[in-house]
Amino acid sequence: MSCKCAIPTDQYHGWECTVSGGECMFLMPNSKACAEKYCEGPDAKIIEERRSGMSKVSSNDVILVCKVCSTEFVISQELLDKFAAKKLSAPTHCPACLEKKHNIKYYPCKDCGGQFGMNQLEREYYLEKMGWPLPVRCPKCREKRRVAKEATRK
Strands across the sheet with 72-76, in order? Predict the structure, then answer.
C-alpha cells in the first residue's frame, strides 16, 4: 500500500508526510491505515463515511458496509425509504452474506437424535475461523454437556 501524501526524504526513515509536515508514522506509507488511525490523509474522508455506515454513490444510491464481511454494497435510496416506511432498519448484510445466512443444512444430534440446523455463516465460523469440526450435538445437548462438565470440575 502507498500514500499520495508521503514523499521520499533523507530524513526520518525515508518518508515525510505532507499532511503533518513530519515523518510518516509508518515504515511503508499507507494512506488507508493513516486515515483509520490518525483520521488524516487522502483517504480520511472515505474512512469517515464508512465509519458512519453510509456514503453516497449517486443521488439514488447509498453504499452500506456489511457487518459480517465488511464489504461495501449498494442499495437504492428508494429501497431504504421503503424499509423506513415499514419501520425496519437498513440491511446489515451484503447479498452474498444474506444468501449464506439463509443457506441452512440440518444435522442429526449425536445424543438426542433430533435435528439441528446450521447456516453457512455458522459452518464457516466453526471450520475456517476457529478451525474446529462442526458440532455433532444440538444446542440444547451441547449446553447440557457443558453444564455437566462444569459441575464435575467444582
Answer: 54-58, 61-65, 72-76
**Which residues are registered as beta bridge partners of 7?**
16
Which range (16-20, 25-29, 82-86, 103-107) has the least confidence?
A: 25-29
DSSP secondary structure of 89-154 = PPP-S-HHHHHHHH-EEEEE-TTT--EEEEEHHHHHIIIIIS-PPPPSS-HHHHHHHHHHHHHHH-
- What are the sequence ranges of the domains in the chain? 6-47, 53-98, 103-153
Spatial CA neighbour of 103 closest among 128, 133, 130, 123: 123
Spatial separation of the C-alpha atoms in residues 17 and 32, rounded to whole Å? 14
> Residues 96-124: pLDDT tens digits?
888 888 889 999 999 999 999 998 889 98
50 touches 23 (CB < 8 A): no
Q: How confident is the model at residue 63, as a pLDDT?
A: 83
Largest CA distance in the chain: 70
Mean of pLDDT values over 28-32: 65
For residues 101 and 124, the answer to whether their CB atoms sit within 8 Å is no
Q: What's the predicted TM-score (pTM) here?
A: 0.45
